[in-house]
Fold:
Amino acid sequence: MAELGPEAQKASEVADVLGRTSEQVAPLRARLISKGLLYTPRYGFAKFTVPQFDRFMRRYMTLEEVPPV
Structure:
């Protein structure tokens, strides 16, 4: 979701990025909402609750990648 940007994202577009269906990512989305990391501004969309969290995630995920040996 962070790769798509800071605005509200359609669940189907997030699923496409992950190579899954909306139904497959729905449980994960629900857990992130219950933990307070996402909220739903309108039906079928989700947005991060923390400003610039998308930037943090992109930076964090880049740092966690292990270069090949």
Observations:
- Residues 11 and 34 are 16 Å apart (CA to CA).
- The beta strands are 9-10, 38-39, 45-48.
